[in-house]
Amino acid sequence: MLELANDLGFSQKVQNVRASGIRIFDNKVSTIPGIIKLTLGEPDMNTPEHVKEAAIKSIQNNDSHYAPQKGKLELRKAISNYLNKTIGVKYDPETEVVVTVGATEAINAALFAITNPGDKVAIPTPVFSLYWPAATLADASYVLINTTEDNFKLTPQKLTETIKENPTIKAVILNYPTNPTGVEYTEDEIKALAKVIAENHLYVITDEIYSTLIYGVEHHSIASLIPDRAIYISGLSKSHAMTGYRLGYIAGPAKIMEQIGKVHGLMVTTTTDSSQAAAIEALENGLNDAAEYRKVYQKRRDFVLEKLSEMGMQAVKPEGAFYIFAKIPAQYGEDDMQFALDLAFKAKVGVTPGSAFGPGGEGYVRLSYASSDDNLREAMKRMNDFLQ
Description:
The chain is of the alpha/beta class. The protein contains 13 helices and twelve strands.
């Protein structure tokens, strides 16, 4: 192994950023022989055939040159049309949409574009653990708001209190349906949050990548209420089982999108041609694909909830996404890490410790039911045997 020259240093900011707790734990248990992993948010479905064919055709047609930095105009038009249909906001494909390398890049580009040193970002937790490291890399600081006592939802009262205590807050990050809990916000709840955000002159970065995977409820985008303040993020990883295509998008008012587009170009130049061709097909001819996945996920959700209940494990009933956030057995107290390790090494079932998702996650574990029916049945059997 090469040794770095002892007269060279590196970024203290990067050194102080902790790697994803989800990935750290997954790497730790992945080498256990025979383990069933319910750790990552990775759909076990295949990308629809017609979407794959579009990517193949793109390659065969030598679609292999630099695309426009903001993404192919045909794709930006498809995204604009899709968002107009689904959330009722008409984004100009020329100036208000940027195609990104997954939603991850979109989150980073947005934070780099809107924050200055000293700005704070409000982040309700438990939530996907990317947001606060991304804020740190963007030279902002952050405030984590524990939502456990409010059924894992950010309330307008809690947000107002947080803003009063932290007057340099520049933006609020929302992710819903939420990873890891699967909770959705009602229309009234979103309206109340939008009112507080507008009254306090804030941005909202709204990550709605799971919005097509909802069960028996309606999804209400906050971007439809305060489009002048909203930076909308989504992608095709979850809706079309396209995680490996790394295709996301971000939309917002032209003035801020100019800055976001600039950051995006400096980060990655542009996204892959074949992935964009697949995305065009998905958005133009595959809007019903997610409905088929949704039926499968809902059946799995109900099965896992039933089995957990039989084991005596309380869980949040998710209204979206493909995760269940379950309270660990009482004998473990709040030590979700030890419970997850014991479950992995003794029962060969991998789940993610809730503490990886920030304050309020302690004492819980996240199970992904984006796994095969056979895997879920066996995992539940192993968990039941372990708990007995």
